[in-house]
Amino acid sequence: MREELIISGRMNRLVDPVLNIWHWHIPLYLFLGGLAAGILFFAALVTIQGKADKYPTAAKLAPFLTPFLLALGLLALFLDLNHKLFFWRLYTTIRLESPMSWGAWTLMVVMPLSLIWCALNIREIFPRWDWKYPILFKTEAFFKNNLLTISWIMLVFSLILGVYTGILFSAFNARPLWNTSILGPLFLTSGLSTGAAAIVLMSKQQTERNYFARIDLMLIGIEIFLIIHMFMGFLASTQVHIEAAQLFLGGPYTTVFWMFVFSFGLVVPAILEILELRGFHMPHWLAPSLVLFGGIMLRFIMAYAGQASRWLY
């Protein structure tokens, strides 16, 4: 019999027996950030295409949600910090190898852009709005004259924000479930899908709802492909990655993931959208509501399951 002495650092109150150091704050922020990124992306896209008047909910109305979504997400991040008074140190340096640095500076750009976008459309949404001061009218005119440039900047940074929400997880190599390059594209696609779903939910025009339902249907297909590809990659990888995949393939997260994310969050809304596009009378709010539900469940499940996955020790 061969005896071995194993010294492990896992006997830590934040690791064993409690495996989840990141609680509800992080997945909530990732969902809200992805949703805001999706809404801003489509607002910029339809404006660049010259279809802002054709799709007014996407271009003008839905973006009014984004400052509140981002503010609520940042509040969740702030509550998660152990040293709350030192958050400003993120803005004293730029570290290209750090996802946290990328996220902090991206939010520094996206938050003002979302406010500027709302300001450019506020008089159309609220006709009685009056800026009162001439300097504010001149500022509004300046931004409107440069609307196309602002749209391109917002388009690029909304994509960065959407990808970042997945990279924030995938950068943690210590957790095998997160150690995959699929998470960035998966969370970006999910964010765009929830953004399209929010537009469908808010729109009162059948033409606009059908247009974004088609976009959402395409994004759901891409998301399903990425999820399947992610598990195929895990099962063809190392033992720890196989064990991470098994958390969803017979393990404790099997039912909740395949029921609430894959079925109710992707497959069922896709079927409902296909039926509605083919002329069947369906409640227009049902499919996008399920997409939003699936989006937030995806992030919560990946957050908690990722912390449960581990390297052999």
Question: Would you summarize the structure shown here?
Answer:
This protein has 313 residues and is mostly helical.
Q: What does this molecule look like?
A:
The chain is mainly alpha-helical and 313 residues long. It has one domain (25-308): Up-down Bundle (Formate dehydrogenase/DMSO reductase fold). The protein has 11 helices and no strands. Helix 1 packs antiparallel against helix 3 (66-80), helix 1 (25-48) crosses helix 11 (286-308) and helix 7 packs antiparallel against helix 11 (286-308).
Chain-wise SSE layout:
Elements: H1 25-48, H2 56-61, H3 66-80, H4 99-125, H5 134-145, H6 147-170, H7 183-202, H8 206-235, H9 239-246, H10 254-277, H11 286-308
Outline the biggest β-sheet: none
Task: State the secondary-structure class.
Answer: mainly alpha
Strand content: under 5%
Apparent shape = globular
The average pLDDT value, as a whole number, equals 87
Helix content: 55-70%
The rounded Rg comes to: 21 Å
Specify the CATH architecture.
Up-down Bundle
Indicate the CATH topology.
Answer: Formate dehydrogenase/DMSO reductase fold
CATH class categorisation = Mainly Alpha
What is the domain total for the residues? 1
Topology as a string of helices (H) and strands (E)? HHHHHHHHHHH
Number of strands: 0
Our count of helices gives 11
End-to-end gap: 20 Å
Ranges where pLDDT stays below 50 over 5 or more residues in a row are none
CATH superfamily: Formate dehydrogenase/DMSO reductase domain
